[in-house]
Amino acid sequence: MNKIILCLCFCFLMSMGETCLAQSDIELRYERKSDNTVDFNYSKNVYGTYYLLIKFDDLTNAMQTSYGTHVSGHTGRFFTLKPKNPSSGIGFSYTYIYQRGRVNPRIKDDMVYMLPFKPNTKVKVQKAEYMGLTFGKGSPDNFNAFVFKVEKEETVVAARKGLVVEVEDKYKADTTQAYSFVRSANRVLIEHKDGTLAEYSGFKSGTINVKEGETVNPMDPIGIAGRFDSNKNCRLTLMVYYLKTKKLFDSKKEENKYNQYGYVNPIFCYKGGRSLLLPNNYYSSDCNDELITQEFSRREKKKYVSKL
């Protein structure tokens, strides 16, 4: 979720130098320059794209009260604060906030996803319910997620090419009891080229075989779908979503906190066709070279074809 960092050091005509904040996933540093501008640089110790937003308070000798942009590299220039009067320094205090994702990315309607299992795996598809409803809370306007049920442990594969940005593999299922839901599950988060995010959750403990920072291609193995309770069926949940607001400081308001993200209902390829998935239907996974390489570069396609 989003994280807010407060900088409480109110700065006027300080000597030139660099200041940073306490350790966090994204840190901002500022440096006063000889021309009285202030450079803000970021360092990021997590993978993937984030929207980073800064808001100034107690601002003197400058006009810009806020600034936001996407950051994806591990380090880089965020922006430069310029003085109204170049002969005087700038005074400010500031707060910054960041959230994973690219705001309102351009999503191709004809993008085709693979079912997240090896070819010829039979799956039953169900729609997942937003967990907040279980606790009497609100839910996003267009929440969409799929639960894929399989009869035994099966290898989970990437449904689309992307960058692995988060891996969580620390939960062991209690298979002695029956549960209607579980709060936590082993998961892999993958960022796609267009800025959408795919969360795969429900892996058997210790079976995730990808690492943060790796690129995966369609049909690359990610882990094993496991049981989460005494039910014999194994299941995997897949959710594709994107960040849809730049107003991160408004996210704690009741009317906004459930709708920071939008959700995608993808077209899937399966044996016998391509379409939106219908709940409570059975499908068999399938793939072909055209779909596997649909987001490959020319060089990647050439390398792939050479191995066929």
TrEMBL record:
Write out the coiled-coil annotation as residue ranges. none
Instruction: List the Pfam families.
Output: Peptidase_M23 (PF01551)
Q: Return the CDD domains for the record.
A: M23_peptidase
Q: Which residues form the M23ase beta-sheet core domain?
A: 147-241
Q: Which residues form the signal peptide?
A: 1-22
Keyword vocabulary terms for this entry: Signal
Recorded protein name is M23ase beta-sheet core domain-containing protein
Q: To which species is this protein native?
A: Marinifilum breve
